[in-house]
Amino acid sequence: MTEIPLEGSGKRARFFPASGADESVSMMLELMSEVWTMRERIYALEQVAAESGLPLTEGIEAWRPSADQAEYLDQQRKTFIKSVLRSLEANHVPGLHLRRSLEAAAEADELGDLITDVASAA
Amino acid sequence: MINQLNHDLRVAPTKDERARQEFVGALRSHVLGNMATHMRKHYHDRYAAKAEAKTGRDVHDAMQADAYFRYYSSIRYNAQEMVHRSIVPPIARVHGNINEAAAAISAETSSFAALDPELEIPRSVTDIDVHLTPGSYHTEYAENDVAAGARYDNSINVFAFNQMGKDTDDIGHTMSNYLRLTYPDFKPERILDCGCTVGHNTLPWKQTFPDAMVTGIDVSAPMMRYAAARAGSTGIDVNFAQMNATALDFPDNHFDVVFSSMFLHELPVKDIRAYLAEAFRVLRPGGVLLTMELPPNSNLGPYEQFYLDWDCYYNNEPFYKPFRDQDPSQLCGNAGFPADAFFEFQAPRYTYMSEAEFVKQLNEGASYDDHTGTLTDGLRWYGFGSWKNKE
User: Which among B101, B100, B84, B121 has a CA at the least distance from the CA of A4?
Assistant: First the structure.
């Protein structure tokens, strides 16, 4: 069983003339997604704790991670950063499941004239 | 909240995975709702007067350097990627279990998928990550794999933020019931759904016409395995076959209905022509071709053309605009259907209202506007088709 890929192949579309602007939008949206996910979880946490009569807030302030817990947080933090900065990951390279870019296919005239029009406009 | 799938192949995301999916669905709703509304107004306020646009391409040219269009496009493009990013992790976590569950369900129920390991997958599928889907529709990651089907099935409600029906099957219900209610004397015995992916819009045909034998086909083996297990899980008796719609392995004059939905716009025009010729061949005299699709550009104003064609330029769907630039009545005529048998229509969503309201809105008719084929409240699906003359 091989890994199911998260990323499509080929060049990503670009919308902004300024270098780096497209990546900034990706980062912002990934951050929005993660911030929302966290807010939803914290809300659930507070509700469950309150319903269970747990003095959660005081407990969190007093808590210190063990070595294993610290290692877990380190790993999670690295994954988090990699995800937020995914548009700067150099993973759009030829590989097992590479699809040729529309431009390359159009130049080779392998998918027909139909996509030439599309590729030149995009 | 995003609707969860209602069958045994449902993948249960963790709390955080589900929150990410909810976020992406909400983000897409925001882009295709709020931002699309603002962008339309923005165009009409700033560009419409001087652009003198006659076509969607003219509007695209006028808007391409506009900051609002750049943000709309960039966020929408990212949201599409994030649909896949939010769907894959929970599936990857239980990948082996889904494959085993699908095989077990298929072994226990009468629904089956007839696979063709020799089938050549068309390059319109293999060379393009359609819809920015990593691995496209056909890639297999394990023996007897269903991952591509699971990914597609689980992505629909996130992608469409619940606008395609509670069980993602509104198109199938709307189109089959359109046929039942518009032609009450027509009693189909054999129905074919082409390019059906996971069969979500195939099953409604069996529900609408319980006495008919319903078959779904697709070129993707993982989709067909998944579709059969999905159908088996819901107890709806439909069979599937791995087959290319441009070369159907069925005899002449076999089917009463040949249906497809959201299929033609993924095909090169030469394949659309080949498919329609095959549909004509396998339809019995008196049978009907029924096609649910995005509306042709000739039915729309310049801005609506531009708005729908976005997917062609930025969503890895290169055949989307070439299809929408075709005249459906000519396509049907070239395939052999009589010129006077062509029909086209818009239908409201059957599963979102009572049948009486559905019929009322059908009878009232509607003009082509920003509710035609767009994921928004009050959307209407576009359909066209033709009857094969009785001999």
Answer: B84
